[in-house]
Design a protein that fits this description.
By secondary structure, the protein is mainly α. Helix content is 86%, strand content 0%. It has 16 helices and no strands. The two termini are 39 Å apart. 50% of the residues are buried.
Length: 421
């Protein structure tokens, strides 16, 4: 549903608002996109922790983790709103026109981000307690309804502010439904503050901050390059880059459905010291990359420009070189991102997270002069370089943590494929 929503968004929004204004919307939407991806790391760290505790039957300890993180996310959400208001007041005082033109839209998008973070806390808790299918289905159906509502509104003439308000309204509905589902399916994991503790937050602080670094690196990869392109090349170039990356990520999202579903199971297998189960999960992730991601990227490299031109009704026509570079980068990205999720599932991601963030920040620094000198093709090359170095960093970390073992993987593959014992 996420992939379908993105595939519909590009032609509809670029047609309704024009390529230039669509590029502006993409830059504004970097705010909620980051928080939707990251939940500031606390939800991801808490989800792994709750899954491991639930697997060991430690319900009271899992409840303490849940309530501690829920309180923290709400405190951080309030802080974000205060910072946004203060920043916009400062921009107004400095007569920064770009901010004043869209300041109410930006505030609404920050509010939307806060609601998303709360909804994701309920989602990761459902996933961590053997309710992955129910939680994911509810969350994604309403998120898809949100996307469709925005597309219909834009098609009917709504502006950025109207669409932002629609996003908040639908996401509030999502929050209410996710809370109801958690209350019914996992009654012992209830909202409140009686079991929250600063000791629990201190224990989770480093894994949470490190978990935040991974989606921060991802957000820089996805949104940072869009901002650089929009500011230093043009808004229409930002729309073109986003379009190419959107279609390239369809296979990433297909493989991601498998990867995300295996994360709670990986946490549980690690908590129970079940090495064979752990290796089977890792083998499944590698197989999905080989059978889905790689063929999809190859197909895009061959027919991508024609497909994108047809898809956007001729509004966006990228050259072959850009599509080929982004297709290659997509495969490399898939490999390191799914391996990093395996590290995250066992909260053993701390060291590599900062490396990934540093690599992404350095890539953005390089991207600025390259974009001005060589345009989108040069920027695509920086994206590929960034993904390649990130893969090397994650492979090194996974090897050190003994997340996967070549001998064990070979034995599991043989048993799985040929029925050996």
């Amino acid at each position: 549903m996420s992939a379908v929503g993105q595939l519909l968004s590009v032609p509809i929004l670029s047609s309704a608002w024009g390529v230039e204004q669509y590029g502006v919307w993409l830059m504004l939407a970097t705010i909620p996109t980051y928080f939707a991806l990251s939940d500031l790391g606390f939800g991801s760290a808490a989800g792994s922790d709750i899954a491991m505790k639930a697997a060991r039957g430690e319900q009271q300890e899992a409840l303490s983790t849940f309530q501690s993180i829920w309180l923290l996310v709400n405190a951080v959400s309030l802080g974000l709103l205060i910072i946004a208001v203060a920043s916009l007041e400062g921009a107004r005082a400095l007569q920064f026109r770009a901010a004043s033109d869209h300041e109410l839209t930006i505030l609404i998008l920050v509010l939307y981000s806060a609601v998303v973070m709360n909804a994701r806390i309920f989602l990761v808790s459902l996933r961590a307690t053997q309710n992955y299918a129910s939680g994911t289905l509810l969350f994604e159906i309403i998120a898809f309804a949100e996307t469709l509502s925005v597309l219909v509104a834009a098609r009917l003439g709504s502006d950025f502010l109207d669409c932002a308000l629609i996003m908040v309204f639908v996401r509030l509905l999502n929050l209410a439904i996710m809370h109801r589902a958690l209350k019914r399916l996992v009654p012992w994991l209830r909202v409140g503050f009686a079991h929250g503790s600063f000791d629990e937050l201190r224990r989770l602080f480093l894994p949470a901050v490190a978990a935040m670094a991974i989606p921060a690196a991802l957000a820089i990869n996805l949104q940072g390059f869009v901002l650089v392109t929009g500011l230093l090349v043009s808004a229409s170039a930002a729309a073109m880059l986003t379009t190419v990356r959107t279609i390239s990520r369809v296979t990433v999202q297909l493989v991601g459905t498998i990867n995300r579903a295996t994360m709670p199971e990986l946490s549980a297998a690690g908590a129970r010291q079940q090495r064979s189960t752990l290796q089977k999960i890792i083998l499944l992730n590698f197989a999905s990359v080989a059978l889905i991601l790689m063929p999809g990227a190859l197909l895009l490299a061959v027919i991508g420009p024609e497909l994108i031109s047809l898809w956007t009704q001729g509004h966006i026509q990228p050259d072959w070189m850009l599509v080929g570079i982004i297709s290659t980068a997509t495969v490399v990205h898939g490999l390191w991102y799914y391996l990093s999720n395996l590290l995250l599932a066992s909260n053993s991601h701390t060291n590599v997270s900062w490396s990934l963030l540093a690599i992404s920040l350095c890539s953005i620094a390089i991207a600025a002069p390259v974009a001005m000198a060589f345009g989108l093709t040069g920027l695509g090359s920086v994206i590929l370089l960034n993904e390649s170095i990130s893969l090397l960093a994650v492979l090194r970390a996974a090897s050190k943590q003994n997340i996967f073992n070549a001998t064990e993987l070979k034995a599991v593959a043989k048993a799985t494929l040929w029925g050996s014992r």
